[in-house]
Write a structure and sequence with these properties.
It holds the Pfam family Cyclin_N. InterPro entries: Cyclin-like_dom, Cyclin-like_sf, Cyclin/Ssn8, Cyclin_N. It contains 15 helices and 2 strands. It has 320 residues and is mainly alpha-helical. The protein has a two-stranded parallel sheet.
């Protein structure tokens, strides 16, 4: 394992001696760069276009389920983050992605303290998907979701730390004296970030600042934002703005925002031109990414596994 990485990777010891149990240590890594995400997906996703289409369908599917069950926005946000993290390390299959989305929502309800019984979630999922399940089929489906739950938690290394964009939108808009109407526009933008991999690259605070800046530009409201005072990273803010503008330029008709403001289709190209070439997140050379043990194939059959948060790596090194 290379210790030159900003965040640590999974550590697997040398081949065990006869009679010893194979063990591994997995550190969480909540944020990756664009090239790291693309490299991970190249190993788990055969057709990235199909994956993105299904991801957009999953967003609509989960939104319907969340609306029916009256879950708050943060539950939907967390479920979409889990869904995308899952396919960084597990093969994407067009026949099971709804099951993965369902287990991501189930785990998200626990993490966000909006808990519902799995049977209740399955009942709504079946209704949204027009599935007719008898009692035996519903029980088998419940068991399948429970089986996927442990796989999801191991994939995210039991790291349940999730920041929420809407909380920062409210906080920052008050700090910057941004009108409620513009904050509402930024809030609408946030729904479309869940259809992208932005949350895999940037923390919620940086995403919130980017959305507020774009909303202010869109509504021609001048605001001065000091990134240091808000403790956000400029490169992460720029990464978010570029990703969202690119999405609106090429896929506006499929966006959530278009359902509210369809007349703004051509406006985002002007915003992208005005943005110009900005400094985005620093990328590592591809050879370093390929050598990074974090992207090695995951084993779910290792005899003993230990999961640690990325900020515990100093403690880990002391134990080695």
């Amino acid at each position: 394992m290379s210790r030159s990485q900003d965040t640590a990777s999974p550590i697997t010891p040398c081949s065990p001696k006869k009679g010893e149990m194979i063990s591994s240590i997995q550190l969480s890594r909540p944020f990756l760069t664009r090239l790291q995400i693309e490299y991970a997906q190249s190993k788990t996703i055969d057709n990235i276009v199909v994956y993105k289409q299904r991801r957009n369908q999953v967003f609509s599917f989960l939104m319907k389920v969340c609306n029916t069950l009256k879950f708050p926005m943060r539950t939907l946000e967390t479920a979409m983050i889990y869904y995308q993290r899952f396919y960084l390390h597990n093969s994407f299959n067009t026949s099971t992605y709804h099951d993965v989305a369902t287990v991501c929502l189930f785990v998200a309800t626990k993490n966000e303290e909006t808990i519902k019984k799995l049977r209740d979630i399955i009942a709504v999922v079946s209704q949204v998907r027009n599935m007719q399940l008898n009692s035996e089929q519903a029980e088998n489906y419940r068991r399948r979701i429970i089986g996927l739950e442990i796989k999801l938690m191991e994939t995210i290394a039991f790291d349940f730390r999730i920041g929420h964009v809407e909380e920062y939108l409210v906080k920052f808009s008050k700090t910057l004296s941004i009108p409620k109407e513009i904050t509402y526009t930024a809030w609408l933008f946030s729904y479309d970030t869940y259809q992208l991999d932005i949350a895999l690259k940037a923390p919620a605070s940086s995403i919130a600042v980017a959305l507020l800046e774009l909303a202010c530009k869109l509504e021609k409201f001048h605001v001065n934002i000091n990134y240091r005072e808000l403790f956000v990273n400029m490169e992460a803010v720029n990464e978010t703005k570029v990703d969202l503008l690119d999405f609106y330029i090429s896929n506006y008709n499929y966006s959530f925002f278009a359902s509210i403001r369809p007349e703004l289709h051509d406006t985002f190209m002007d915003l992208k031109i005005a943005l110009g070439n900005v400094k985005q997140l620093v990328e590592r050379e591809k050879r370093y990414i390929e050598e990074d043990a974090y992207f090695d194939e995951r084993s779910y059959t290792t005899g003993e596994r230990r999961f640690m948060l990325g900020n515990q790596r100093k403690r880990l090194y002391n134990e080695m």
